[in-house]
TrEMBL record:
Localization per Swiss-Prot or TrEMBL: Membrane
Domain Sugar phosphate transporter positions: 21-294
GO cellular component: membrane
Membrane topology, from the record: Multi-pass membrane protein
Superkingdom of origin organism: Eukaryota
Key words of the record: Membrane, Transmembrane, Transmembrane helix
Descriptive protein name: Sugar phosphate transporter domain-containing protein
Amino acid sequence: MGEMGGIPLGVIGALFLSVASSVSIVICNKALMSNLGFPFATTLTSWHLVVTFCTLHVAHRFNLFESKSVDMKTVILFGLLNGISIGFLNLSLGFNSIGFYQMTKLAIIPFTVLLETLFLNKHFSQKIKFALFLLLVGVGIASVTDMQLNCLGTILSLLAILTTCVGQILTNTIQKRLNVSSTQLLYQSAPFQAAVLFISGPLVDQFLTKKNVFAYKYNPLVMTFILLSCVIAVAVNFSTFMVLGKTSPVTYQVLGHLKTCLVLLLGYTLLHDPFSIRNVVGILVAMGGMVLYSYFCTQESKKKQSDDLVKEKEDVRTPLIMGVQEKENVEGKKLAKDSVV
């Protein structure tokens, strides 16, 4: 596979698809919820997953990818966990201020770093940590406004952080350890994620909005935006699993904050959302952190590849050297024996 600046083109493609589809679906959903008055976010997410599974099923029937059986217990638990994490994130938004919810999303990166360090023995250099810190400070400046705390909201936020971190780490780990592709894992797990949200979605949405999704008066324009949102969601879900499989949970979260900055910019230019000098400063600081993170990751990746190449050469040379030494020892013993005779 080709490379660009040391990064495989497949990774670049996955990152680009993730950014483009995520920003598109945010703008689509904002129009659907804010302008057309459709507030049922959790139920909408369940429809996203149903359409994603149906799309993948059709693709599988046309042999566009090969299904691979994975331990059913693992898939069920994984699917349920991801579905529950989405529910907790929506509840966190419902029970907290926007500012505290943004802090919850920011906290996912340090929690992911902590979990991977403790349980997967993964090492993060000081340079990487500094870049992540700069990124979080920038996004915090740009997006966090009010900070109102309450006990239930804090508990829901902690549960959302924990389930999201574990779910994203598992998405990466399962693909690598069980040798399944992002498409295969999404195809296997999407029905269980959809089932959790399909059952709980209407209840969560009614609890948060005091409205019933089944009593909502649908019209052709709303249905068009719902369908468009579901179509874009197929690309979002597919690219999410691709990015998590090809990179890491931390890189995926960094990408998520890039999307936040782009949404703020597009919201100002396309939807005429309010924009201040604080937003500009925050976005610039966050972009600086992202650039540094990308640069340090690329440098460390190149260094690791170089070290692995050197080690591989040493592993090849070692048997040759040992073989030469053994041959010399045998010849030395033979000469000694001849001289004694």
